[in-house]
Amino acid sequence: AQSVTQLGSHVSVSEGALVLLRCNYSSSVPPYLFWYVQYPNQGLQLLLKYTSAATLVKGINGFEAEFKKSETSFHLTKPSAHMSDAAEYFCAVSATGANNLFFGTGTRLTVIP
Amino acid sequence: GAGVSQTPSNKVTEKGKYVELRCDPISGHTALYWYRQSLGQGPEFLIYFQGTGAADDSGLPNDRFFAVRPEGSVSTLKIQRTERGDSAVYLCASSPDRGYNEQFFGPGTRLTVL
Q: Are A75 and A65 in contact (CB under 8 A)?
């Protein structure tokens, strides 16, 4: 079975500060891991994905995430927050080759000017 | 190119009524997924189609929920005898093929059951 836990339902950072959104996963098989972003009244957009290649994954809009098997983590980071980063972020996991995604409960990011 | 579209964007209905929610996937995508997102939660898987057939419907909560994809493109999620607990945003996603590891999501249909 697969599941993810996102620590912190709300995170606030100042513009220009580091963004760190936490995700821990549980999977009985090697996982695929994803970060999606959801802007108000829009669909989920893929930020980045880990599919068993490089453990440090770079995505769109300057985001990156590192897969750490020993910690069962896949935290999302961005060195410098921008106002346009304010949104809801979801971590998701699927089993290798499986079809459905298991999502966390989401983290709402607020960027303070 | 056009993304996944869903209609209607909002649906308000009364308890006990029947509703249909439509999803138009990206052209050529053979895999189609339905998810339900309740307030304050992440999306939860409902059903997965590969072509015309429902390959995995393990997420459908009960027999009031049903989905079809008769021609392997557009899909309709049908909910009978709606209950207030069915209120949620229903998301549709598609991907190019089975096992492809990225799903492309539509904007969702917000269903409110009064």
A: yes
Q: Which residues of A touch B104 (CB under 8 A)?
A: 46
Q: Which of A43, A46, A98 sits opposite B102 (nearest CB)?
A: A46
Q: What percent of chain B has pLDDT over 70?
A: 96
Mean pLDDT across A24-36: 89
Q: With a cut of 70, say whether residue A78 has pLDDT above it.
A: yes
Q: State which amino acid sits at residue B81.
A: R
DSSP annotation string for chain B: ----EEE-SEEEE-TT--EEEEEEPPTT--EEEEEEE-TTS--EEEEEEETTEEEE-TT--STTEEEE-TTSS-EEEEE-S--GGG-EEEEEEEESSTT-S--EE---EEEEE-
Task: Mark yes or no for CB contact B43/A44 under 8 Å.
Answer: yes
Closest C-alpha among B60, B64, B110 to residue B87: B110
Look up residue B102 and give its two tokens.
Answer: 């990225």
CA distance A67 to chain B (A): 16
Q: Which residue, among B17, B21, B1, has the nearest Cα to B9 in the 3D structure?
A: B21
pLDDT digits (tens, 9 = 90+) for B23-77: 999 999 999 999 999 988 899 999 999 989 988 899 999 999 999 999 999 999 9
pLDDT score for A41: 77
